[in-house]
């Protein structure tokens, strides 16, 4: 709680006309300089006293336009809706507890108190499982797209390096003639392939920073977070792609015959 207090059991029993508001509601109704505690606001046609203000916590689902007001359920049911009974109960299960067992226990308790089963229950665990399966499928799809993109990019790098070997055949022959070993030629072209991939990785990371910054300016409620581990992983992947797809051009360059290489234009 940022300011004041929350309502208690006595407030609920008395159907007290008290409310707790969030930071956005405070700014919208009273402004940043006015103390909202003790102020009276109308909720529908019901005057209520503000007794608390929640902390200003932002998340991706909240926007500055959302105004949240909380009051005791008994007050809302009895004074606003004119009901003296519950038409629904939400049960929150602790982490690690089997929701199916909790659902069965709730059913037994309610049936024992009602004498008959004049109610129904809905377990969100099935919905959560569906959401998890959907998330896993989406993650798998994105991973496949990433792998395909890396493969296409690697093939592009390999083609570029093969063209480079063809165009620099005479240069390779001269280097071999003056004493360069096959390992030296292979290392040269592997390093070039890795450098091409690393430059591409740097450009991609730079573009992601720019796009994320622009997006955060357009949508102020979203905050882009860039982790160091992701950047390091991108550089490692770029290096591996350069080594894997640069090996064939480097091997071809190292296996050239110096005499034939010098004889080519």
UniProtKB/TrEMBL annotation:
<protein>
    <submittedName>
        <fullName>Macrolide export ATP-binding/permease protein MacB 2</fullName>
        <ecNumber>3.6.3.-</ecNumber>
    </submittedName>
</protein>
<keyword id="KW-0067">ATP-binding</keyword>
<feature type="transmembrane region" description="Helical">
    <location>
        <begin position="189"/>
        <end position="218"/>
    </location>
</feature>
<dbReference type="Pfam" id="PF12704">
    <property type="entry name" value="MacB_PCD"/>
</dbReference>
<keyword id="KW-1133">Transmembrane helix</keyword>
<dbReference type="GO" id="GO:0005886">
    <property type="term" value="C:plasma membrane"/>
</dbReference>
<keyword id="KW-0378">Hydrolase</keyword>
<keyword id="KW-1278">Translocase</keyword>
<feature type="transmembrane region" description="Helical">
    <location>
        <begin position="224"/>
        <end position="248"/>
    </location>
</feature>
<feature type="domain" description="ABC3 transporter permease C-terminal">
    <location>
        <begin position="144"/>
        <end position="258"/>
    </location>
</feature>
<dbReference type="Pfam" id="PF02687">
    <property type="entry name" value="FtsX"/>
</dbReference>
<keyword id="KW-0547">Nucleotide-binding</keyword>
<feature type="domain" description="MacB-like periplasmic core">
    <location>
        <begin position="6"/>
        <end position="108"/>
    </location>
</feature>
<keyword id="KW-1003">Cell membrane</keyword>
<dbReference type="InterPro" id="IPR025857">
    <property type="entry name" value="MacB_PCD"/>
</dbReference>
<dbReference type="GO" id="GO:0016787">
    <property type="term" value="F:hydrolase activity"/>
</dbReference>
<dbReference type="InterPro" id="IPR050250">
    <property type="entry name" value="Macrolide_Exporter_MacB"/>
</dbReference>
<feature type="transmembrane region" description="Helical">
    <location>
        <begin position="138"/>
        <end position="165"/>
    </location>
</feature>
<dbReference type="GO" id="GO:0022857">
    <property type="term" value="F:transmembrane transporter activity"/>
</dbReference>
<dbReference type="GO" id="GO:0005524">
    <property type="term" value="F:ATP binding"/>
</dbReference>
<keyword id="KW-0472">Membrane</keyword>
<dbReference type="InterPro" id="IPR003838">
    <property type="entry name" value="ABC3_permease_C"/>
</dbReference>
<keyword id="KW-0812">Transmembrane</keyword>
């Amino acid at each position: 709680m940022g300011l004041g207090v929350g309502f208690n059991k006595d407030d609920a029993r008395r159907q007290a006309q008290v409310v707790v508001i969030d930071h956005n509601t405070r700014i919208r109704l009273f402004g940043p300089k006015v103390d909202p505690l003790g102020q009276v606001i109308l909720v529908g046609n019901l005057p209520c006293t503000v007794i608390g203000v929640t902390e200003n916590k932002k998340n991706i689902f909240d926007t500055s336009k959302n105004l949240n007001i909380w009051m005791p359920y008994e007050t809302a049911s009895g004074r606003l809706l004119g009901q003296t009974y519950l038409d629904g109960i939400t049960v929150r299960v602790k982490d690690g507890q089997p929701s199916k067992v909790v659902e069965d226990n709730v059913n037994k308790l309610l049936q024992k108190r009602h004498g008959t089963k004049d109610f129904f229950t809905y377990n969100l665990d099935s919905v959560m499982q569906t959401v998890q399966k959907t998330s896993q499928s989406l993650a798998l799809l994105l991973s496949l797209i990433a792998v395909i993109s890396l493969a296409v990019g690697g093939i592009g790098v390999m083609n570029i390096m093969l063209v480079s070997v063809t165009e620099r055949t005479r240069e390779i022959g001269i280097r071999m003639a003056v004493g360069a070993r096959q390992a030296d030629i292979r290392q040269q072209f592997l390093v070039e392939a890795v450098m091409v991939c690393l430059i591409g990785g740097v450009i991609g990371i730079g573009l992601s920073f720019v796009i994320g910054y622009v997006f955060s300016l357009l949508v102020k409620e979203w905050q882009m977070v860039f982790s160091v581990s992701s950047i390091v992983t991108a550089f490692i992947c770029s290096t591996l792609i350069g080594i894997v797809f640069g090996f064939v051009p480097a091997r071809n360059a190292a296996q050239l015959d110096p005499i034939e290489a010098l004889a080519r234009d």
